[in-house]
Amino acid sequence: MPDLSLVPPAFGYILAAVFGAIIGSFLNVVIHRVPLEESIVFPNSRCPSCGAVIAFYDNIPVVSWMLLGAKCRGCKERISFRYPAVELLTAAMFVAVAWHVGPSAALPFDLIFVSAVLALIFIDAEHMILPNVITYPGMVFAVVARIAIPYLTGTLHFDDLPWLSQGMFAGMPVWVTSLAGAVIGALIGGGSLWLMGWTWEKLRGIEAMGLGDVKMMFMVGAYVGWRLTILTIFVGVLTGSIVGVALMARQRDGNMQMLLPFGIFLGLGSIASLLFGTQLVEWYAGQFR
Ligand SMILES: [Zn+2]
Question: Of 13, 69, 104, 220, whose CA is between 20 and 30 Å from 257?
Answer without folding.
Answer: 220
